[in-house]
Amino acid sequence: MKLANPHLDHFPSLVAMFFDRAGRGGEDPFLWRKADRAWQPLSWRQVANQVAALAHNLRDLGLKQGDRVVLVSENRPEFCIADLAIMAAGCVTVPTYTTNTERDHQHILDNSGASAVIVSTAKLARVLMPAALRSNVKLVISMESMRVGQQGDVQVIDWDPLVTGGEAHRADAEARGQAMTRDDIACLIYTSGTGGAPRGVMQHHGAILHNAAGAAEVLVNDFGIGDEEVFLSFLPLSHAYEHSGGQFLPIMVGAQIYYSEGLEKLVSNIEETRPTIMVVVPRLFEVIRARMIKSVEKQGKLANWMLGQALRVGEKDYERRLGVLDRPVDMLLNKLFRPKISARFGGRMKALVSGGAPLNPEIGVFFHSIGLTLLQGYGQTEAGPVISCNRPSVGLKMDTVGPPLMNTEVRIADDGEILVRGELVMKGYWRNKPETERVLIVDPAEPDKGPWLHTGDIGHIDDKGRIVITDRKKDLIVNDKGDNVSPQRVEGMLTLQPEILQAMVYGDKRPHLVGIIVPDPEWASEWAAAEGLPKDPKLLREHEKFRAAVRAAVDRVNTQLSVIEKVRKFDFADEPFTIENEQMTPSMKIRRHILRQVYEAKIAALYKA
């Protein structure tokens, strides 16, 4: 689909934008899924008809304007269809994580006051249904057939009959999309809860359209996107970052979306689908970097020499100090080394966009060195969620998050907090006026310009207009002398070591930092075999020689840190931090408050020892 400047189009709603693009796309492929070992497409016309049919049937089943509909599904075409249909019916989508516990579902169902639920599989329904039966939900739609022994007050309906016959309802759905306004609430996205119970962020149609247009402007101007763009959707679509950047941005630019089969098949999915744009989180880049280094190490001296040269020359190029003698090496790498790396990423990747958490600059320089363009973005669910993004035309600087998106105002408060204003800013937290008033504050001198979003992040703006984030206001560690330490910076440096998979540091009102560390299991297994020690992680953690090896990794990091940032002592975690044990959010950030509770005794012991 050829679109000259998609970011210049102005739509009243996300629904109107979708039907416009579907009208242009017609029989062209739009959404792809892997089935029977082959990628199978749905065309723009097919998707539009299913959206229209489902929107009509939702209203026919009694859903009214403004009703909330919870959507529980992994990334698949039906997620996009359900999301758009809910909005086209005049309702509000409440996307939730597939990793949610029954308690998580209960909180969201109760807080949102949802009238209906759309769920993808029987497995997910088993966790969801007990909560749904205790809520106000009267309707459950199942994408895959679900055995129900007794329905009670909740009506359970199969998906397939609800998405057929949509051609007859297209005109009505399109008219509804045009009748909506950009101020109408499109979805409630619950924050992932790094510091407590998730809050429902009210994202309006205009916020997401603003985000998609701003991101499209970057892609058009800096990467010359055309009519053959391919996105590979991997991050959970229930996360605001993928919801806006991995679903509505591709719709705005008329791109195709392939749905990944999951982390274990991601590498093969990339090679098969050959994406041009991919939205990912920093943790994935760290994993890819570690695996790539390990893979090269096994390929012999020449491969290791080339990687070493690529990193040396790439760092110089990034710092714009590439010398005359470096250029022949750079040309050799462009011929013999970087094309092989590019092929592993499908061969036509224009940009990998990182967001959702801070990216360690060392990771960014690594990918730049091997020939892949890595852009770091910055945002919050409360801002659509993208606020800014690095772009080559301004100059890629990995310790910044780039300039603000088009039509986005950013200023720095007197205390250093980053403030954001514009259509991207949420309408508030659902049914939570005190928190809304805390973070959304209107400037009395400019009451007509809308509120400033107080992000809670500390930073400044450099001479090229790029935002530099230095700290997280509420995540700062304040030691007993009043010094401020950013735990994410220290943790990020620790987890770059091959010996360390995960880390959490602590030091509030204490004389120094201590850490809880999860050793990297692959490294630990190889180390144990080389040392003739048992590979069982529990036994290994008790061995002094193993502790000394991890201590050496911590000490390497300490040499790069200031006195107040150094990790003086550490202990091992009992198990990895995971989504399942609620020690990580679905967007792969550690839940600091949970970890402090779990390891309270170990932390206290580190200060006594």
Task: Describe, in plain words, how this protein is organized in 3D.
- This protein is α/β, with parallel strands linked by helices.
- The chain is 39% helix and 21% strand.
- The chain has 21 helices and 25 strands.
- The strands form seven sheets. A five-stranded parallel β-sheet has the order 4-3-5-6-7, with helices on both faces. Strands 16, 17, 18, 19 and 20 form a five-stranded antiparallel β-sheet that branches.
- Helix 2 packs across helix 3 (77-88) and helix 7 (205-223) crosses helix 8 (240-253).
Order of strands across the main sheet = 4-3-5-6-7
- Could you say what the CATH architecture of the domain at 10-28 and 42-180 is? 3-Layer(aba) Sandwich
Strand content: 15-25%
Q: What name does CATH use for the topology of the domain at 10-28 and 42-180?
A: Rossmann fold
Q: Helical percent range?
A: 25-40%
Question: Secondary-structure map with pairings?
Answer:
Elements: H1 14-25, E1 29-35, E2 38-43, H2 44-60, E3 68-72, H3 77-88, E4 92-96, H4 102-112, E5 116-119, H5 122-133, E6 139-142, E7 155-158, H6 170-179, E8 185-190, E9 200-204, H7 205-223, E10 230-233, H8 240-253, E11 256-259, H9 266-273, E12 277-280, H10 282-297, H11 301-318, H12 326-336, H13 338-344, E13 351-354, H14 361-369, E14 374-379, E15 386-389, E16 409-412, E17 417-421, H15 433-439, E18 440-442, E19 451-461, E20 467-472, E21 477-478, E22 484-485, H16 487-494, E23 500-506, E24 513-519, H17 521-531, H18 537-541, H19 544-558, E25 567-572, H20 592-598, H21 600-608
Parallel strand pairs: 1-11, 3-4, 3-5, 5-6, 6-7, 10-11, 12-13, 13-14, 24-25
Antiparallel strand pairs: 1-2, 8-9, 14-15, 16-17, 17-19, 18-19, 19-20, 21-22, 23-24
